[in-house]
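Box 4.2: Ligand-aware structure prediction
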Amino acid sequence: MSNHAPQTIYLKDYTAPAFLVDSVHLTFKLAPTTTRVISRIAFRPNPDAQSRDFFLHGEKLRLITATIDGQAITPDVTASGLTCLVPDAPFVFEAEVEINPEANTALDGLYMSNGMYCTQCEAEGFRKITYYPDRPDVMAVFTVRVEGDLPVLLSNGNPIAKGDGWAEWHDPWPKPAYLFALVGGDLVNHADQFITVDGRDVALNIWVRPGDDEKKCAFGMGALKASMKWDEEVYGRAYDLDIFNIVAVDDFNMGAMENKGLNIFNSSAVLASPETATDANFERIEAIIAHEYFHNWTGNRITCRDWFQLCLKEGLTVFRDQQFTGDMRGHAVKRIDDALVLRAHQFREDSGPLAHPVRPASFVEINNFYTVTVYEKGAEIIGMLKRLVGDNSYQKALDLYFERHDGDAATIEDWLQVFTDATGRDLTQFALWYSQAGTPRVTVRDTFNDGTYTLTLSQDTPLTPGQPDKAPMLIPVAMGLLDHTGKELVATQVLELTQASQTFTFEGLENKPIPSVLRDFSAPVILDHPQTAAERALLLAHDTDRFNRWDAGRNLAQDVLLAMLHDDTAPDSAFLDGLAAVLRDDDLDPAFRALVLTLPSQEDTAQALVDAGHTPDPTAIARTHEALTVHIAQHLQDTLPRIYAAMTVTGAYTPDAISAGKRALGNRVLALMSKLDGGKQATQQYAQADNMTQQIAALAALLKIGKGADELPAFAAQWQHDRLVMDKWFGLQVSCASPDDAASVAAKLTTHPAFTMKNPNRFRAVFGALKANTAGFHAPTGAGYDLLADWLIKLDPINPQTTARMITSFDTWKRYDADRQVKMRGALQRIADTPNLSRDTTEMVTRILG
Ligand code: B3K
Ligand code: ZN
């Protein structure tokens, strides 16, 4: 905790750096509690700057010596950095500082994980390593010498020399300090190579600790090579160093980090074997490896001018990794998966106290803005832009972006200008997507008269914190029309909604058609489009757009859930019959059928109730979801065993999309069957499983029906040596617990010898699962709230970033009944009142309390 009141930083206050850096030489003398960092930094005045004030960021550093052009100086040092007088001409600043990696439990800067040294510098971790202008618009060429009593010593760029106990690295590409990385450890490499399109022979390595992890690298390596090839083929971007290193680290605050030439990964985001990882894990690993690799161009070669521009690299890179996964695994299912994430997490964020624009206007702690809004809504903006200008223009604009801005620290304005220059399109209104928070609601109404069909689209964006007034946005609405037999009358076209309300007409129709609106989820908006069960069923059965077929089923399900909640009615047969037809349609790929068969989450139902002006009761929602699941299982009773059998995948396990799709559908069916057969089939699947997907799905099905008393301890005994699998064991018990038990199950797990809050994966396994168990977290006793608050208070001094992230579990507090509100507010207030709360958590709790 700094001694100053947290300071708010504003986008509008941006000023250019006073000094630029030409080169940086760093020497690290590694020691667990007393690492020395010796720096030599060549500065020059920035001709474009207004000020000549010299300030270097630095936190938690012990300054030993400092010189300018060889002359000892005594700088003015505070808790956040140093200042001193400097020449108004190029000069060399040198310093030696001491830091304590072992004490760094925040996992930001240089820290230790299982005896290994590693770094995390984005966003502002480099200032915990040495004194430096730690801002992304200062880019420099780094040369690094690492000395340490460890066999493997890595840094960015290419290796230039090494000997016993030391190694030197040089990165020829100027980069901001947030992309700096260093690793030292007793590691082994899974090696391969890639020859780039321009003939560069690149050594590829995935570094892990010796032992079981060595057997978990092959898939990640394949994903890396596929990503390198894809970026060459689709974006014309080749790799630019002689070596690309990935290191797996157990203690890591997020998924992975794109440091130049030395990506550092949470082990959960890179290590996988068929026995220990699920299909979902494999897909996630492939996507994260691609994401970090793609950052080499969108993020590293072209970086951000300041942290307000974060979506410039993150939105674009997420969009690129989504395209990649679509190409690898199928676009329709990927689009549905992405919409699920967006609706579940981003719409939630956008509708609560944490709502912020994709490009925020201010922040206190930038690490709090690595959000679903910046990432996923940021990616949606790129997708809309591509849809509006078309594929060819998109490619032209991207080529221009790389050509014009290579080596720059760029802004959103630069990005949009490239599209304007490449296409001639005025994007002034479109740019509102970056500055206006909140999810637009698009209302769809229609009339039919004398052969003319009129579609009226209206838009409204609700107020969000600090933004009471919203202007109409440019919303691309892809749509088509079907007739009553399900035949397509009008193929997909993109309507551009630019005003508060607009009408679109279609002439020459015989009867009133059935509209299919927002195909392919063409904009991140909420549709208000009342349709009858029969119309939705028709779209579910016949729409040519896969996304809207799925969405029609989902809307039907949500309507059924709301009706059941309202008056306990039996589910509409249009829904049950529609599901049955999709399930039996062998022409539809299994992954798609599995998605259709999955009910909206309880969280989604809660949000749907809020949208309809009601107060959600999580307990009643859980009960209704369970009742509908049983109805579905009964209705499909005769079909389920046949589909289950048909989804059997024979032969050795591979995580390809087709096999994974079959397992996904088979396991959806298994969960339904277990509602009727007392877990017979699941018990058998558990006993026979030879891969983690099948094993964990069977265990989950058993736990969900209150069984699994033998399997749960057997699972722990089998996997106690594997921390990633044990994370699943911890999480599953909480996510599958009944609402009444979830908090006590979580509390008991925190007393397990393998529970530790120093490892973010383990902490998230328990408490992320508690949040995901909606009715359990919101149990009327308030036990879920109290438990999470207790643990966040304990975690904050150890790891502020993870605490600040997990506190978002409380961000929906205002939507609940008075009793729950009082309890949630009380838990939040208790956190807020904790002495010495970190800046990260202080900002979050203040915003959530509103
Ligand atoms: N750029 C990093 C995220 C850094 C998070 C800092 N708190 C990973 C990524 O988006 O690829
Ligand atoms: Zn990223």
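In the box above, the bound molecule is (3S)-3,7-diaminoheptanoic acid. DSSP finds 27 helices and 31 strands in the chain.
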